[in-house]
Amino acid sequence: xxxxxxxxxxxxxxPRSSAFELVRDELIAAAKVSGFSLIELPVFEDTELFTxxxxxxxxxxxxxxxxxxxxxxxxxxxxxEGTAGAMRAVIEHGLDKGQLPVxxxxxxxxxxxxxxxxxxxxQFYQVGVEAIGLQDPEIDVEVIAAADRGxxxxxxxxxxxxxxSLGDAASRSAHRKELDLFLAGLDLDEATRVRAQLNPLRLxxxxxxxxxxxxxxxxxxxxxxxxxxxxxxxxxxxxLTELGIAFTINERMVRGLDYYTGTTFxxxxxxxxxxxxxxxxxxxxxxxGELGGADLSGIGYGIGVDRVLLACEAEGVFGAExxxxxxxxxxxxxxxxTKRFGVVMxxxxxxxxxxxDMAYGDRSLKGGMKAADRSGARFSLVxxxxxxxxxxxxxxxxxxxxxxxxxxxxxxxxLQLSRFIFDSKxx
Length: 427
Ligand code: HAM
Description:
By secondary structure, the chain is of the alpha+beta class. The protein folds into three domains: 16-168 and 227-315, BirA Bifunctional Protein, domain 2; 174-225, no CATH class; 329-426, Rossmann fold. It is 39% helix and 20% strand. It has an eight-stranded mixed beta sheet with strand order 1-5-6-11-10-9-7-8, sandwiched between helices. A hairpin with a 5-residue loop joins strand 15 and strand 16. Helix 1 runs antiparallel to helix 5 (137-154), helix 2 packs across helix 4 (83-92) and helix 5 packs parallel to helix 9 (227-242). It starts with 15 loop residues before the first helix and ends with a helix. 40% of the residues are buried. Bound molecules: histidyl-adenosine monophosphate. Histidyl-adenosine monophosphate (HAM) is lined by residues 81-83, 112, 114, 120-121, 124, 126, 128, 130, 256-257, 277-282, 284, 300-302, 304, 306-307.
């Protein structure tokens, strides 16, 4: 029997896994440099956390949750997103009792039973942040800027930022009144009406032509913002402009989760077809209260690492590097005695931080050099009897073919060799 991974999961293995790792780590670095601290969360939670937190009108809750009964008869769900679990942990551990805002980041696997296609998986990766307990427009911009910094540091250029505001409760209720009246006059099937009752904004996201054309003249939430919501949104725009972060306003943006209020945003990449959202987020001012905590506001984002990797590949940001985490050095020992010498030498070099591996098995010089080539190492070094006894060896630059004679001396922990390797990195 030959096993296969479950349908629609994203997996990363060498050499592409090093590109995945780089993308994830760069997105995490952007969160850390912005003052967010790690929160490590479980991948499964009580089902009710998500039905309550994410919202009953969403596809995520109605169609996409991996829900099962555990051995104790409890209903458990694999996390489809990170915000609800993060809020649960903040409330449970009283983080909101300390200094505000609470600024946390997380990364890991998330699960949605969607129809798999390029860029849409049933298990996917996110790096996310949440900033809890601050109403200021400045924190909205800080959060957006952290995501933007990650993309920029990766070298991405073609992505776009779209923003909107869902306003405060008063803005939404004023809009809803008008929207409900408008929807009452439309030709909708029963299922769509039920959906609209749960959350009428969902109809802005309906892909069917018949609905799209009817919704073209629907009243827009942005036109119903209260004075304070309008002013908040205006400040967000001003500050983004001041920071040089380009954006467009998408007045019809609908996020896939129900908890959003106020500033909401999405980063989209034009090269990813229909799965163009590389990250998104926004304010969720009622969520903590809804989940039994203090009535604190919050804002955050989730970035899809899988999609950012696809975007990086589409833009060619990794250049022609064979493997991003390639070895510094590959040893080719000739014969059993030199193999021992090689193993000892590798330990010495690794202690100084040189990334080194060697050809195992009894290979010929030709076979050993082939292995060196395949390894993607920047340098190779052949160790025969002569090299191990004389303490002098030839280091070969695998790109240029250039050869350099270097002292290899166990008594100084191969200092000359490790210096040579590090110097060549700096250049
Ligand atoms: P979301 O927009 O549902 O937001 O997901 C965030 C990102 O995760 C998306 O922009 C996309 O890049 C990626 N993503 C979502 N579903 C999939 C999938 N099936 N396959 C591959 N990538 C996917 C959230 O999850 C919110 N928790 C974000 C947030 C945090 N809002 C406030 N705080």
